[in-house]
Amino acid sequence: MNRLSASDEIGLFVKVVEHGSFAGAAEETGLTPSGVSKAVTRLEDRLGVKLLQRTTRRLMMTAEGELLLARGREILAAIEATEAEVMAARGKPRGTIKISVGTAYAKHKLAPAMPEFRKRYPEIDLRISVADRRVDVIGEQIDVAIRTGQLTDSTLVARRLDEAKRVIAASPAYLARFGEPKHPSELADHVCLAITGFSRLSEWPLKIDGRVRPVAIKPAVTCDNADILAEMALAGTGIVRLGSFVIDDALADGRLKPLLEDCHVSETVPITALMPPGRQHLPRVRAFVDFLVEKAGKTTPNSAPN
Question: pTM of this prediction?
Answer without folding.
Answer: 0.67
